[in-house]
Amino acid sequence: MSHGTFMVPTPQNEPVLSYAPGSEERANLKTELAAQKSQTVEIPIVIGGEKVFDRETLDLVSPHNRKLTLAKVAQANRDDVSKAIDTAIAARKQWAALPWEERAAVFLKAADLISGKYRQKMNAATMLGQSKTCHQAEIEAACELADFLRFNAYFAQKIYEEQPMHSPYGQWNRSVARPIEGFVFAIAPFNFTAISLNLACAPALMGCGVLLKPSHTATLATHYGLQILEEAGLPAGVINLVHGDPKMIGELALSHKDLGGIHFTGSTGVFQHLWSQVGSNIKNYRSYPRIVGETGGKDFVFAHPSADKDQLLTALIRGAFEYQGQKCSAASRAYIPKSIWQELKKDLIESTSKIKMGDPEDFSHFMAAVIDQKAFDKINAYIEHARAAKDANIICGGEYDQSQGYFIRPTVIETTNPKYKSMVEEIFGPVLTVYPYDDAQLEETLQLCEESTDYALTGAIFAKDRYAVKKLCDFFENTAGNFYINDKPTGAVVGQQPFGGARGSGTNDKAGSIYNLQRWISHRTIKENFLPITAYEYPHMGES
Ligand code: NAD
Q1: Does ligand 1 come within 6 angstroms of the Cβ of 191?
Q2: Does domain 46-295+506-525 have CATH number 3.30.70.100?
């Protein structure tokens, strides 16, 4: 029972710390990295708050230091998954009945713990487990995650405040935002700790019970995140964590009659597979499952002849190579007018060749390793394809080495073919392909950029000419869910640039926004009549 109106304060984005030499945060992070490296953590599956360790385990190794086993991860069996689903469904009842502000308090407290005493724990686990530099870990495992939790609580309040426009004399009309029935299946990618946890936390905030299946390679930080949520007061059973065979877990969850929704982030292929499984099971569900998926991209940078060369250079390097190009938003194809390319090419080669790459524990590095053997092999296949191709030329990088970890040098491919393989397929690695175009062929090249891929996630234009800015912005209206003018296409911030793509890139429900939270509720409208009538006849039926 709620006894008042509670205002969630307007959230502020968590400030990003610098980790500059001599800073307190740098010293604390180094201490935490050393502590986490000195142990191999046993990671359980978590069902109804119970930690289950005694299962087969799978080693979690650090991508940049293959000899370092960070954790042994318990793998769920079929019974575990079924039990976790039943537990999520059962836990929903009490959790959903809790006033929303009580639920919000749990996540607001977790945000303060994450940005406070556990900041370096989350950052270190993300650096070691997912091979991020301190900056790349800080912006998401600490800041974006805290932002997701705080902004979502604020947006949830707006949803609960929303009521029908009118209650005429003698009536009261109300709307109740019920959490969707059943359970939500949250399936997470490897590349963002913040996403991994938010996929579960967003529906849980709205009162749902959740089955969370993280990516194996993001297990360490997700495990710590769940511990923090427990410390913040998340009741047992609201979020149940399973690790293990994705296919088996997916089949059990998707064929369950109480599947209420899917909250997915990952590749387009896997999402399409999940959606088709829902389609084939459609007659068996109690409700139509909500399907929310943010998926792949083939994100572009399009330079107009009026673009500033130096701004473009920085955007290409940061946009394409930060976190080894493993952001769904990473710049992976660029269309550059030949008038600019002559000079830009030289600078791009020079700057890219100097990029420092290696173990992220050395804070002077700009890049670290790609996530695993599968990614390493896949990315290198594109590099070898370009080496052999007649219409493509590696102008920089192209080297790779897995003796210590999965390191791939930032690579730039120049192509004369705008439909060349690496111009149209998602690579998800540090590979940027540039198509220099004739300045006179601006219109044709815009069309090429628009049509070349099925994705529509992020895109950036560079131009100083204001007429060109307007023209390109209009032209690319449906080519990107997140669009940037004179900025790199990565680095969306919660509450500032709600993130998500359309077409093959996802359902565009914008993580960390009110639109996403709307997907986890199902409104119940209540009309109460204070003055019920007692005659069925209408006035027009009277005798004249
Ligand atoms: P992935 O699709 O390989 O895996 C995502 C998750 O799906 C993992 O937890 C995986 O174990 C699980 N999975 C795989 N097969 C499954 C099955 N049959 N049933 C159930 N679950 C299954 O993606 P990834 O390599 O972890 O992440 C990279 C991809 O994610 C890229 O395509 C990237 O563009 C995309 N991504 C998109 C966004 C976005 O907001 N649009 C954000 C981050 C990542």
Answers
A1: yes
A2: no
